[in-house]
Amino acid sequence: MPSIAKAATRNLLLRAMSDDDFALLAPHLELRSDRRGHIMFDREVATDRVWFPESGLGSIITSSPDGLRSENGLFGRDGFAPVSIIMGSDRSPHMAIVQVASECQVMPAAALLEAISASASLRAILLLYAQTLSVQTSYTGLSNAVHLVEERLARWLLMSQDRLDGTEVPLTHEYLSIMLSVRRPSITSALHGLEGNRLIRAERGCIIIRDRAGLEEFARDLYGVPEAEYERLIGPLR
């Protein structure tokens, strides 16, 4: 018998699967809780597990040999990690950390590989998610190149709220500076700018979104295309 009913999961990708495909995974899924800062997988280290978040946020981080770090991907209940597993690689040049404390359905990578070898439709939907993540990361690169810090922060807050419940994004200045690859004073200035426009309210360890429509307008045209691609291929994010 499946360990979890499909209707009980909050992971949108699992819910979008056919009943037969979900049944291939369900016996192997085990719910676990991870605190902020937990490393899901490390760069160039073989991983034997796959995470399907039910809540919280995970960041895919690129780091240089000199220790510089930048977030290039954000995921939560919309998907799974690492996508390298379904590409035939047991490791990634990136790392993934828990950014907002999460609950995840975790399963052995070997069991997932066995399931996708038995089901072309399961492989297909996981590859569709990989496509949406690729679009997201490409737009993150473009945003980092052309947007002001305030606009990048607005986009990032919208992406985070898409994957969380409610209007609160529980993150500190320190984590935001890592995610956006800027110094903490730049984050403080950007938060003050968004607060001045009555788009958010910043509290200790938490940002409250007050005006989502205004935040979308402030983020300009680099928010929306990856989200539309996810909805086209898998379903609504929110």
Commentary on this structure:
This protein is of the alpha+beta class and 238 residues long. The chain has 2 domains: 6-129, Jelly Rolls; 142-233, Arc Repressor Mutant, subunit A. Helix content is 42%, strand content 21%. The protein has helices at residues 12-16, 19-25, 109-118, 120-146, 149-162, 173-180, 184-196, 212-218, 225-233; strands spanning 30-34, 39-41, 49-53, 57-63, 69-75, 95-100, 102-108, 168-169, 200-203, 206-209. Strand 9 (200-203) and strand 10 form a beta hairpin. Helix 4 (120-146) packs antiparallel against helix 9 (225-233), helix 5 crosses helix 7 and helix 5 (149-162) packs across helix 8. GO terms for molecular function: DNA binding. Pfam families: HTH_Crp_2. Residues 147-213 form the HTH crp-type domain.
Write the topology of this structure.
Elements: H1 12-16, H2 19-25, E1 30-34, E2 39-41, E3 49-53, E4 57-63, E5 69-75, E6 95-100, E7 102-108, H3 109-118, H4 120-146, H5 149-162, E8 168-169, H6 173-180, H7 184-196, E9 200-203, E10 206-209, H8 212-218, H9 225-233
Antiparallel strand pairs: 1-7, 2-6, 3-7, 4-5, 4-6, 8-10, 9-10
